[in-house]
Model the fold of this input.
Amino acid sequence: MIKSNTTFPTKFDAIVVGAGPAGAASAYVLSKKGFKVLLVDRSREAGSKELYGGRIYLGPLKEVWPDLDKKAPIHRWIKKERASIMGKDGRIITIEYNAGRRTSFTAYLPELVRWMVSKAEEEGTIFVDEVVVDELLTSDGKVVGIRSGPDEIRSDVVIDAEGVNRLLLEKLGLVSGPRPEELALGIKEVLKVRKNEINAQFNVDDDEGVAWILMGDITLGIPGGGFIYTFNETISIGIVIHMANAIRAAEAGAINHSFELVENLRLHPYFNKLWKSSDVIEYGAHLTIEDGLSFMPKRLVYPGLLIVGDAAGLILNTGYTVRGVDFAVYSGKLAAEAVEKALSEKEGATEENLKVYEDMVRKSFMYNELKRHRASKELMKDPEFFTKISRIPLKFFSELYEIDKEVPTAYEAFKNACRSEDSGPLSLMFKLWGMVKKL
Amino acid sequence: MVRVVVGIKWVPNTQAVRFDPKTGTLMREGVPSIINPPDLSAVEFALKIKERYGGEAIAITMAPPSAVKGLEHVLGMGVDRAVLISDRAFAGADTLATSYVLAEAIKKISRDVGKVDLAVFGQETIDSSTAHIPAQTASWLRWPYVYYVTDLEIKDDKVVVSRVLEDRVEKYELELPSVISVFMESIEARDVRLLHKLRAKIEKPIVVWSNKELKLDPRCIGLKGSPTMVSKITWTLEVPRKKIVYKPKDPEDAARWLISMLLKDEKTSKIFKWVVGG
Ligand SMILES: Cc1cc2nc3c(=O)[nH]c(=O)nc-3n(C[C@H](O)[C@H](O)[C@H](O)COP(=O)(O)OP(=O)(O)OC[C@H]3O[C@@H](n4cnc5c(N)ncnc54)[C@H](O)[C@@H]3O)c2cc1C
Done:
């Protein structure tokens, strides 16, 4: 039988706080490079605190785990992209795009994160779950480790991968508290549906899935949208609403409880038939970031500290796609590479040596994407845009298709649709064009 | 110095288990296992004894290999080491065969590590609630035992325990070693600590004993050693949810609506009238 009171090392090259996609990726890459890594998470089991929509882009993940598409617990490859604009009166426009190649998939984030963490453990990462980190330890203005309850552990460098709720960074005074303007609230249900029923209802094969975004009346006009993703034997449905507008709507009495929005979606006659015989097996809510760039801390490195993933504001939310998981993984990889560089220098993890991480992020596709989609952020928060963009096309199609005797020309239908928004076709065209340019 | 062995059971999370009304069996597939919650109180109790008198706490469980996760949790709470008794030969055991294996494991700990003074168990398990194990294990060991213990005091080779009954607290003096089953609502288990959990991950202070190590008579373990016969399982049918959604104006409106609905249904109206006495 093993001895009970041996001493063990409590100093690491790197401590990673948070075993989400960002933390798991940086721990994996660092361990693979031979560093001694401690990965800490508060959840009962790796990934068990995760809640997200459902679709992940493969490209950036494959740069970390080249065999991920073959080995990881992937549910379905997105084959069909659907988008629906919803009106009040049951009028709905749906477009569908049938994809030519496989670039994204659905996966249970807890399952996928568990897989990522197990890969890191295989490379030598020490993973400790069920432990909350209370504080990042500092000494002479440098982060030197972590504290949890009475216990302190030291390291040359700490990677903060704590996600959107940045309590540790707040405590250090590196970021201010959460601002509703920058955040969104996601509410989600998981519906259990038989596999062949999903295949039949959505017209897909066993390993093919659907990513479906919903706009318009589904959020009762609150800027945001809905989503539907298909998994092996479940469908995830949910709503994401811009926090500041949601608070306003709640104060104005427009919504009672946010979960009603998801319930409305589940019971909606247009969608309900897709999951007729389903059971709700899970529900939950999670914060997410609406505007990555403004959520981003002033700096991504401090002496002894790097910030990755959601905590770094590295998430793109365009309204029609959310890229959080792949950004998180990619930023984790960049941070690990920067740590390798810094620790090979004489002075170690100084701010100057870690700065390469910030440069790498700024040169990466992530930063580019965030900048390119910046303008759309303003639009996404604008209730006027949200109602107009849905009402005009709905009116147009109702003029065109809901016919008693005469069929209007397309132009007449368009004119009527514009008039219903107190606008001439031309001025509206300009306005809309101005809006569309921002997308 | 006291050496405490604490027994834990790795059970399916019964809150997540569903019942198949067609076959009358539990659908355990995909249901994650957890530490039997009353056993966490037992672990806390064992750790308090260790803190008070010095010595060590050793967790034991007879379970499939996945129970390592649970053992890591109690090591994270501060248990010093753990024994996983795991072998296909032990599978299918009833409480008699299980208690036999546990008793033999406790004897082996006494031989290999040092004399065990106390064996502590949870009050009962959430997946069967027999509460047999503490008494049966004690009987194999020929040690005295007491259930529903909330506190104890060790004096030399004796222990004075307090046990609660519904309306009173009793005190008993037992010879050590003895077996104690902890009253489950009496203490709350502590959280996992970083250093403890780190030690569990780095040192891996968990040994696995199969029947190669325990060398028990195959006729006394597993299915063969289990005389218990389950003759019949009955169950109450799940009441199908009505799935009615009502959006009330305010709490009063909600209450009024709820009462009117309860009164509409024959069964619930009877219960409701009985409860409010009208
Ligand atoms: C409703 C919703 C829908 C989404 N949909 C998608 C989608 O479809 N596709 C997509 O790519 N992205 C989506 N996202 C975004 C995506 O989930 C995140 O961007 C991603 O999970 C961020 O990864 P991360 O590792 O940075 O942080 P997280 O995944 O949040 O991980 C942080 C981890 O740190 C732990 N932690 C935090 N603080 C501490 C502490 N003090 N001590 C110990 N542990 C701590 C937490 O337990 C957690 O495990 C969605 C998000 C939401 C909310």
Observations:
- Residues 108 and 123 of chain B are 24 Å apart (CA to CA).
